[in-house]
Structures are given as structure tokens and as C-alpha cells.
Amino acid sequence: MSMNIFKQEFGMRWRSVATWSAAIAAVMLVYISLFSSFAGQADQINQLMANYPKELLDAFGLNGTDLSTVMGFFGVVFLFTQVLLAIQASNYGFGLVSVEEREWTADFLMAKPVKRTSILTGKLLSAAAGLTVTNAIVWICSFGFINIFKAGRSYDTGSLVLLLGSIAVFQLFFLSVGLVVSLLVKRVRSVTPYAMGLAFGMYVLSAFGGLLGTSVIEDITPFKHFDPNYIVRHGMYDLPLVLISFGVVIVAFVASYLLYARRDIPAVS
Amino acid sequence: MNVIEVSHLTKYYGKARGIDDISFQVNEGEIFGFIGPNGAGKSTTIRLLLALIHPTAGSAAIFGKDCIRFGPEIRQEIGYLPSEVFYYDRMKVIDLLKYSASFYPKDSTARMHELAGIMELELNRRIEDLSYGNRKKVGIVQGLLHRPKLLLLDEPTSGLDPLMQRKFFQLIQDENRCGVTVFFSSHILGEVQRLCNRVAIIKEGKIIETADIRTLQKNNYKKVQLMGAKIDPSGFDLPGVSHLEHEDGAVRFFFKGDINVIMQKISSITVSDATIEEPTLEEIFIHYYE
Questions:
Q1: Strand order in the sheet with B57-62
Q2: Does the beta-carbon distance from A104 to B83 stay under 8 Å?
Q3: A43-51: long-range contacts (C-beta < 8 A, 24 or more apart)?
């Protein structure tokens, strides 16, 4: 791997990492700070929720959730966090190599004496490093904000660690799938629509897949593999499903290396 | 030794033709011109040499090694200047050049500053603030700073003002004198004639002629245009004159041969204006098909 590519890539990405991390931290702060008022009126809220249709509760990850407990409430906050993490990781995935072709800088980079695999490794590690920074921020914010706003209630640290421990693979899923899709299409004109499409698409599959009644489609989305509601209620991962995420990540990365090595770099015309 | 050895190289983009069965050699130490109109396949050929794209058929070797299999190794000794230069906009010029230099094991700092001085490049400006010509200078410096043994220049002079063009040609000739082989693609005949030892002419993806530059110059046509009310066009129906045409008191033709014959003819009549110029490349091509 080429250290210079890693440094260059990280230098170009750190602003984005900082912005995403700050935004996610802010969203978590706002939601977690609401906990004490929720907890105070938990009975009314749980009653209200019991009147909603099961499908709607499923859609927002609220089915069987007790919002009066710290982890029940945090599970919902974590779902929002997951959506943001998915958009960020997809964004980096789709943009990783396509940005060079969109802005015509690929010629510069590939005329240098480096292997394409080294270029891709440098870029991937740099994106992974950025995502890890955001991941660390989520860990810090989760523990910090929960302890500030838990309103004197206790919570199960084990479930929290399980939730946060799922972030890395969750991020890699969207990074790798974004990357491989960007290499399968001829040209990514704009990263944002692709990233939003992948992230929200996967969320919607998980949220409303139940309505369609086909569990096979649901099974491809990491929002299902790492469903916070399931993890909090069972205190463990939904094991066979989690392996699907791992499998997709591995296949997508291998395919990306193969596709990138054979890719024809388009020229300005 | 052949620095570049291209044999039956073919590239199709789907059904669209890039180049079709091209073969040629570039010898060590020569400046090889590659001329043809836009869309003829000049950039495609260079991009194949750099392994930016993969051939549909045929092969290319540089320094005796296959361009695809030994790409990273041979690119150690290649300097490339693309026709359109694009760099990471937010970077400063100096940072881009340092990044470029970081790909080569040798220390290129001194050469980098020397080149920036010659091309009058300001190192502390952001790339996004540079004019097209200044970006081109960045391209020249980054292409040369690692002292490559082979230069691939893809229409390098577009966007450079005449003064910079001259400095650039000087730079290329100096490099060449130190043993650097130059592959120079262009659609401007004049600069190719000035700089190159040999040329290949490419049209519609095929090489239609590979020739010594002196041979090409012997075939050199001049385009003559005379203005004047009383010119008798038939007076110019001389040996070496072709495409003679006249309208509204203007006479136009191409001439190949001893220019003095035409000069004497012109001085014997009354004209209001006269131009003798190089034909455009397209006009040269017309002659290649006759």
C-alpha cells in the first residue's frame, strides 16, 4: 500500500469526516437529551404506542420497545444514527474512485508508478480511517450523553457495547457496496443521489419489508442484520443474519479489486 | 533499441473505434511526432501506453516490457503531460508537485524548483485559482520533475502563450539532448516539423504514413492566395500547382516545388494582396489521399 496516497486521501477527506462526526454527535445529543422527559411519562407513551398498528411500530423500530428504559430509548436513537452512518459510508464508497474520473484526476494518479491495487488499498484504508474516527465519536457520545441524561436509571452496558460494536461492519457494508456499484456503472455523475438511494433504500427495505411480507428481501439489508431493537431486547446479535453482512463486505471488496484492475479510465472528450 | 514498440494495437470502446491495428516503433533518443486531427486516436494510443485503458487486441511495449504487465515498473521512467490538465483543485501547486514527486524513489526537490523557475510557475497558489495556461505549466513541471527517460506529450502546447511555448520547446530539446526520448502528439503541423525527427500520421484510427521529417518537408505544399482585379488565373497553371480556383478577384492554389518560381510569377503581375502559408493538416491529408 502506498502511504502517500493514504495521506493525500485522508487530507482531502478529513473536513468531511469532521462535519459528519459533528452532525451525528449533535443529532445524538438532541435525541438523548429528550430521554428524561420521555421516561417521566413512559406509561402514557407506552399506552399510546400500544394503540398504533404493529406495522408502523415495526417501521420505526419501536415494536416491543419500552421507551422508559435507557436501552429501549437508546435503541431508537441508534436507528437514526445508523441511517446517518449509512449515508456517510455510502458517500465515501461511491466517491472513492469515481471522484477521480469525474474530476479527471485519474490520469494524473495512474500515470504514476503505482499498481492499481495499491491505489485502491490506499484509498480504502483512508476512507476506513475516516469512518473509524466517526465510529469513535459515536462511542464517546453514546457513553457520554447516556450518563449525562439517564435520569438516575441504570442500563445494561453489555447491550450498549453490542450496539456500538456493530458500527464497523455496518459502515464497511455501505462503503464496499457503494464502491462496487460505482465500479459496475460506467460513470457516477453525482455521488449524493447514489449514496442517499443506497442508504435510504436499505433502511426502507428493513422498515417496510414486513409490510411486503417477503423476508428474503429484508435479509439483504444491514439495518435488519443489526436491528437495534433486536440487539437490545435479546442482548445478542441476530447471528446468521450478521454473517450475511460480513459475506457481502468480502464479496464486494474482492469484486472491487478485480473490476478496478481491469477498468478503462475514461478520457476527456 | 526501440523505446516504444507498438504492434497491431487495437482499441474499441464497445463498437466505437479508438485505434485499429496500429504498429510503429520509436527509437531511443529521438523526438517522434504523432500527428492527426482530433478524434484520430492519438490520445487513445498514449492512454494505452500508460495502461490507463486496456487494448482490445495487439500489444505495446516500452523499454522492452509489456505496458500492461509491467505498467508500474515502466512508469517509473515515463513523464506524461495530458492534453487537458486536471488536478485536485483545493491543493496548492507546491503540494501537488510534492505529491507527484512522492511516487518516485529519488529526491526531485531541486529539479522541481528549477523547472518551476523556468516555467515561471508560482508555487503557493491554489490550483483552482490558476488559469488554463498556468495549469498547463503545473502539468509540465510534474511531468518532468522525476527526470524521466521517456516523455509522452499529448498536445502539450494548447493553452500556452507563444513565449511559454518557446520555453517549453527549449526544455524538451534540452531533455532530448540529454538522451530523453520524446513521443509528441499534436495536430499542429508546424510545431511537429520544428521539433521532431520522425512522424507518424494517424487518421481515423489508422496510421497512414510513418516518415522521416525531411521527407515530409520535401512534400511540403504551400497555400497561395492572391487578391487583385486583373489576375489571369490561367497564368498560374504551372507544374506543381494544384487545386487552382478563382472567384471575385481572388486566386487560390496549392504549390509544391521551388517557391522562387511562384515568387517570380507573382512579382510580374499586379496584385493588391498576397499570402503564402502552410496548409492546415486537413489540407495535407487531402493530398495524402491523392
A1: B16-27, B2-13, B57-62, B65-66
A2: no
A3: A43/A68
φ, ψ dihedrals at A126, nearest 5°: -65, -45
Expressed as residue numbers, the domain containing B249 is 222-288
Query: In which band, very low, low, confident or very high, does the pLDDT at B196 lie, cut at 50, 70 and 90?
Result: confident
Indicate the range of A94-98, B37-41, B127-131 predicted with least confidence: B37-41
CA distances from residue B257 to A254, B190, B280 in whole angstroms, order as listed:
64, 18, 18
> What is the average pLDDT across B110-138?
90
CA A131-A136-A137 angle, to 5 degrees, is 95
For an interface test with B, which of A12, A108, A121, A259 has the most B Cβ atoms less than 10 Å from its Cβ? A108
Nearest to A100 by CA among A116, A85, A88: A116
CB pairs under 8 A between A and B: 64
Probe site for chain A from B43, B52, B91 (most A CB atoms < 10 A): B52
Same domain, B190 and B168: yes
Three-state DSSP state, B290: coil
A106 at interface of B, judged by CB pairs closer than 8 A: yes
The answer on B139 and B99 residing in a single domain is yes
* Chain A environment of B44 (Cβ under 8 Å): 267
Predicted local distance difference test score (pLDDT) of residue A119: 94
What backbone torsions phi and psi does residue B246 show, to the nearest 5 degrees? -145, 145
Burial class (CB in 10 A: 0-12, 13-18, 19+), A49: middle
What does the pLDDT read at residue B247?
Answer: 83
Q: Are residues B281 and B189 in the same domain?
A: no
Q: How far is B104 from chain A (nearest CA, A)?
A: 7
**Cβ within 8 Å, pair B78-A110:** no
For chain B, what is the mean pLDDT? 87
CA–CA min distance A104, chain B (Å): 6
Domain stops at, among B184, B218, B252:
B218
